[in-house]
């Protein structure tokens, strides 16, 4: 990068807030995807919305691209800078600015870490309900830019449902203030929702007003050994017909085996089954507990569940959650090829069976790990690299098999990315889930908000127009 440009960046954020050393470029240039080499030109750390605005204006003037960087926990390469971009890291913009108990809203800078907001809410006797294993490092700006989901979607919805307002800097450097905490606002297009899930391609989020929920009462966890994947649907329906639940997750015996071994956790109960469901509910009192026990018994009587356990304390509930939440981290050492796919909830068993057959038939030597948010129709398919296969050959073979997996996704009218975003990794497969006409509309929107294509270019789709 030209010296004059580095000087211009330093004039905006301060000289010690522009990094160009190799270690920083490697660190801030990538997210949790390890398939693409990072190659940014510089990393900048703005301290205010106005500085972000000035950076985007400079990018327009000097025709360079910017990539937003939060906690970089993404799994689709949305925050990877591999084309000489300038990375805008939001780490310094990490303050909680305001709180209203009556509105149950909190105004945050984008670099606030998810767990920081969760803790803040708890200190106020409230609850920030979007939760996932990476909440200790993921930042709110990134969560909103990817519309992060996680483990409580069945009860609380996605990140989108908690964004009550935002300030965003568009690709021309204009600052838009959207919705301002209003519950009702029927004044035309709700632009806020365009920026949510846009993966930094339409704007840089510089402030967020997030809603908070009432604190849950005594979250209690059941882990059930399922007779079959089909049985999971009867279990889900019976729970939902009889009591409110706050999570309905699943994992396979293979996933459980890895977590038990790696984390030294005991098997939850004696009987091993191919698949397990993890269900969470609020123990609001005796009636809730009786209802849960009655449903549990019914599921056993019907033969849908072969064995199971229920937490008797907070620490037991936390340990049962670890069987599900620690899977992603545990299998990361096997260089997994990841798929984050969804279909309508009722279609999950048939879909999973079909995809499992496709992958197993083509690659009988690859280990397939299934887990995910079955209550949302979202399954994570991780294919583990055999020790004796090199990384490039493995990923190449997986890319081949992806075409068959995504053909099944299309047949089931599903999504090639349920909650991890498209980024760079799922870009080649976007057309399996979105029509040509839809993609054309998305490109037109990109043109409206970022005519010079300076914001995270090449993510989600390639903009035809040149920079
Ligand atoms: O690593 C994965 O495939 C999924 C990660 C995350 O979305 C989860 O649900 O644990
Ligand atoms: Zn997930």
Using brief descriptors, characterize the structure shown.
alpha+beta, Uridine Diphospho-n-acetylenolpyruvylglucosamine Reductase, domain 2, Uridine Diphospho-n-acetylenolpyruvylglucosamine Reductase, domain 3, seven-stranded antiparallel beta sheet, five-stranded antiparallel beta sheet, 18 strands, globular, binds (2R)-2-hydroxypentanedioic acid, binds zinc ion, flavoprotein, FAD-linked_Oxase-like_C
Task: Explain what you see.
The chain is α+β, with helices and mostly antiparallel strands and 467 residues long. It has four domains: 3-92, Uridine Diphospho-n-acetylenolpyruvylglucosamine Reductase, domain 2 (2-Layer Sandwich), CATH 3.30.43; 96-214, Uridine Diphospho-n-acetylenolpyruvylglucosamine Reductase, domain 3 (2-Layer Sandwich), CATH 3.30.465; 219-328, Alpha-Beta Plaits (2-Layer Sandwich); 335-431, Alpha-Beta Plaits. It has helices at 3-13, 22-28, 49-62, 114-123, 140-146, 153-156, 192-195, 229-242, 253-263, 286-301, 314-325, 327-331, 348-362, 391-411, 436-449; strands at residues 18-19, 42-44, 66-69, 86-89, 96-100, 105-108, 126-127, 163-170, 175-178, 203-211, 213-214, 219-226, 247-252, 275-282, 305-310, 337-342, 367-373, 378-384. The strands form four sheets. It has a seven-stranded antiparallel β-sheet with strand order 15-12-14-13-17-18-16, with helices on both faces. The chain has a five-stranded antiparallel β-sheet with strand order 5-6-10-8-9. Strand 17 and strand 18 (378-384) form a beta hairpin. Helix 8 (229-242) packs antiparallel against helix 13 (348-362). The radius of gyration is 23 Å and the shape is globular. The two termini are 17 Å apart. The model has no long low-confidence stretch (mean pLDDT 97). It binds (2R)-2-hydroxypentanedioic acid (2HG) and zinc ion. (2R)-2-hydroxypentanedioic acid (2HG) binds at residues 132-133, 328, 338, 340, 372, 380, 382. Keywords: FAD, Flavoprotein, Metal-binding, Oxidoreductase, Zinc. GO terms for molecular function: (R)-2-hydroxyglutarate dehydrogenase activity; FAD binding; metal ion binding. This is D-2-hydroxyglutarate dehydrogenase.
């Amino acid at each position: 990068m030209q010296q004059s440009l580095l000087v211009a960046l330093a004039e905006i954020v301060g000289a010690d807030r522009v990094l160009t050393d190799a270690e920083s470029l490697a660190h801030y240039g990538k997210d949790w995807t390890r398939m693409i080499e990072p190659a940014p030109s510089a990393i900048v750390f703005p301290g205010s919305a106005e500085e972000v605005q000035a950076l985007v204006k400079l990018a327009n003037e000097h025709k360079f691209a910017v990539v937003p960087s939060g906690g970089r926990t993404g799994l689709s390469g949305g925050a990877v800078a591999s084309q000489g971009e300038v990375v805008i890291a939001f780490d310094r913009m990490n303050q909680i600015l305001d709180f209203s108990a009556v509105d149950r809203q909190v105004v945050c800078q984008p670099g606030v870490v998810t767990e920081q907001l969760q803790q803040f809410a708890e200190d106020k006797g409230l609850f920030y309900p979007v939760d996932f294993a990476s909440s200790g490092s993921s930042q709110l700006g990134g969560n909103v830019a990817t519309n992060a989901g996680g483990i409580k979607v069945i009860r609380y919805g996605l990140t989108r449902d908690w964004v009550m307002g935002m300030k965003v800097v568009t690709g021309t450097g204009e600052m838009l203030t959207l919705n301002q905490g209003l519950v009702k606002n029927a004044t035309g297009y709700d632009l806020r929702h365009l920026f949510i899930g846009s993966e930094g391609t339409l704007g840089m989020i510089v402030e967020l007003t997030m809603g908070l929920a009432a604190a849950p009462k005594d979250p209690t966890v059941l882990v059930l050994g399922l007779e079959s994947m089909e049985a999971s649907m009867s279990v889900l329906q019976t729970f939902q017909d009889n009591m409110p639940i706050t999570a309905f997750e699943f994992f396979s015996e293979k996933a459980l085996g890895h977590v038990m071994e790696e984390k030294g956790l005991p098997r939850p109960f004696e009987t091993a089954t191919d698949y397990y469901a993890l269900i969470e509910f609020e123990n609001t009192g005796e009636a809730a507990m009786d209802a849960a026990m009655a449903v549990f018994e019914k599921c056993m009587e019907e033969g849908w569940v072969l064995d199971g356990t229920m937490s008797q304390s907070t620490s037991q509930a936390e340990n049962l959650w670890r069987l599900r939440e620690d899977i992603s981290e545990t299998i990361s050492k096997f260089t997994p090829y990841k798929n984050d796919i969804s279909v309508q909830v009722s279609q999950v068993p048939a879909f999973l069976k079909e995809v499992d057959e496709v992958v197993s038939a083509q690659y009988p030597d690859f280990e397939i790990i299934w887990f995910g948010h079955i209550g949302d129709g979202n399954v994570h398919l991780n294919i583990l690299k055999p020790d004796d296969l090199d990384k490039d050959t493995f990923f190449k073979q997986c890319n081949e098999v992806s075409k068959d997996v995504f053909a099944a996704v299309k047949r089931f009218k599903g999504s090639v990315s349920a909650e991890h975003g498209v980024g760079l990794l799922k870009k080649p497969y976007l057309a399996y889930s979105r029509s040509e006409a839809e993609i054309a509309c998305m490109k037109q929107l990109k043109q409206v908000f970022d005519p010079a294509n300076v914001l995270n270019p090449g993510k989600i789709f390639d903009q035809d127009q040149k920079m």
